[in-house]
Amino acid sequence: MRIDHVIYATRDLERAAARLEAELGVAAVAGGRHDGLGTHNRIVPLGDGYLELLAVCDPEEAASSALGAALQARIEQQGEGLMGWAVAVDDVKPIAARLGTPITTIARQGMTARLTGLGESLRRPFLPFFLSRDSGVADPGARGDAGGIAWIEVAGDRALLEDWLAGAALPAAIDQSRPTMSLGCIGMRTFTGASADAMVGAVPADKTEEFVRALDTTAASNKVMQEFYEGHKAQFV
Hints:
The chain is α/β, with parallel strands linked by helices. The protein is built from eight helices and twelve strands. Among the domains are: about 1-135, 2,3-Dihydroxybiphenyl 1,2-Dioxygenase, domain 1, CATH 3.10.180; about 205-235. The chain has helices spanning about 15-25, 60-65, 65-80, 95-100, 120-125, 160-165, 185-190, 210-235, and strands at about 1-10, 30-35, 40-45, 50-55, 80-90, 105-110, 110-115, 130-135, 150-155, 170-175, 180, 200. The strands form three sheets. Strands 2-3-4-1-5-8-7-6 form an eight-stranded mixed β-sheet, with helices on both faces.
């Protein structure tokens, strides 16, 4: 089990691809139209995983499919942005049996894959859906050389995500809207390249100023306390 791809919802594939290349230096390659979904895509291959740019190409057809309707709603209500992620597995059947989710087929230009958990993922985007490509279908992300998807951060229910993944170790972090620190597991260090003497910290963007003020207060207090303790220490030397 590994992170396969992340979906970016956009109104215009060409414009989104141009912006990504200009801002991040990664190029999108041609994708195609999904059979019966009213959607089409472009692929940003990253090596181990990829970013899928997804847009509506037929509004009427999209409205009649779960993925197309969810994409339309995302664009209308929130605008462009990340809307989901997928995990690649060897076989979706045992996962569908465990979760009680239906298996569906997605096809694009002769390439097919089996999905499960898509509906739940669309309703709760912090949950991934599961994907297994049919025999002979290449991984769209394999041709890239950007280093792959090192990790992903989502906001949601940690316990539910862990249960959804059956405890599988994936480089995924849950945004709980509070600063956190970790000595890091071997999986995180492998994917991020963090050295053995480094500690990882994460601070929500909207709490950065509060966090910095707290650090300043702590540093000032420590300075005063150090002077106090140095004075007491001198009495015992």
